[in-house]
Amino acid sequence: MPLTLKAGVSTRAVVLLFVAVLPSELVGPVNPGNPNSYLNLQCFQFPSIPTVLGNLGRNSVVGPGLAEVDFSLFKDTPAKRISETFQVEFRAEAFNILNRANFQAPLDHLQIFDQNSALVPGAGLIDATTTSSRQMQLGLKFIW
Length: 144
Known about the structure:
Layout: E1 2-3, E2 6-7, E3 17-18, E4 44-45, E5 61-62, E6 71-78, E7 87-95, E8 111-113, E9 135-143
Parallel strand pairs: 2-8
Antiparallel strand pairs: 1-5, 3-4, 6-7, 7-9
């Protein structure tokens, strides 16, 4: 999910200026797998003149991905004692079987600078998950 980061200069969305850092020192603006500080805020700089837009493009930061593995087992058993067409189906299903945490994009924390060009506490913080934890269910289905 692409994100557009904002600086808190005016009512219009002022986009941030990307700091020119040596490539060997620059890891990137995203810390994947770290929900406490998903954005590396040291990669951004407040625009030098408040009326000038920075050069960070729209939707240039990508949010965390989503991966989930679901698993199902079905067993159909004919019940000839009851009827010729009567069947019993047993189901065992597991959702998010690997119990992977799928973090939500930091949608509530997109403004990383305030009006005084100071970093906003909690900027880039991920505070929710997109999917639920592992869930399992059993079921019995009668077909006639």
